Amino acid sequence: MATPVAQLAVSTVIFSLRAGSTLWLPLVRRIREPFEGQWALPGGPLGANESLADSAARTLQQTTGLTPRYLEQLYAFGTVDRSPSQRVVSVVYWALVRPDEAEQATEGENVRWFSADELPELAFDHNTIVEYALWRLRNKMEYSRIAHAFLGERFTLAQLREVYEAVLRRPLDPANFRRQIEAGQSIVATDEYLAGGRHRPPRLYRTNESIDLAENGPLPEQGAPHALR
């Protein structure tokens, strides 16, 4: 008797800042068993002739209409009993999109945005996957330039600080934040200023393109969430 072969699937966690600078992500409602009617991460089986990244990009576009600029492989989840019907190993990607991009995402009866910290019970082990993705994002904010993926081409220091505060869920001292960001050389000052305010207009900055968004800084990663140890 032939040994059953595990199915390989690809799923994606998409983060964006919406609704008062909080982290949100889109979920899709399952229309078949197992877990019919429950919310889940966008994803599906890996096509025979496509790469993992291509599969993640395809399912994202088909379900949400999004084509993120930042798409990175996150982790592989393969617990034996994670699917009740058959053995499924999921390679998970994560994507970060700007608020203006998120506003263009498809929404409807079977696609909806949820607050990342207030999710319902999801299908399979997708709550654990989101927990891990949040941990990775918040950890990576401390030692990389990944926060810039949430911003447009030009931004103020205050806008950049608001991204950090929203993701890390804590206030940051403006003066200390400015010193740390400028010392890290991850941004470049432009000759442009943000217009329309009542006070002196703040200077606009751009990302230092010579530094990769995911490039590591001096801080080491911490231990993984308990569910993955």
Automatic annotation (TrEMBL):
Stretches for region Disordered: 209-229
Keywords in alphabetical order: Hydrolase
One MF annotation (Gene Ontology) recorded for this entry: hydrolase activity
Highest taxon of source: Bacteria
Gene3D superfamilies: Nucleoside Triphosphate Pyrophosphohydrolase, Winged helix-like DNA-binding domain superfamily/Winged helix DNA-binding domain
Signal peptide positions (record): none
SUPFAM superfamilies: Nudix, Winged helix' DNA-binding domain
InterPro entries in the cross-refs: NUDIX_hydrolase-like_dom_sf (IPR015797), NUDIX_hydrolase_dom (IPR000086), WH-like_DNA-bd_sf (IPR036388), WH_DNA-bd_sf (IPR036390), WHD_NrtR (IPR054105)
Nudix hydrolase domain residues: 5-138
Full protein name: NUDIX hydrolase
Species this chain originates from: Subtercola vilae
Taxonomic lineage: Bacteria, Bacillati, Actinomycetota, Actinomycetes, Micrococcales
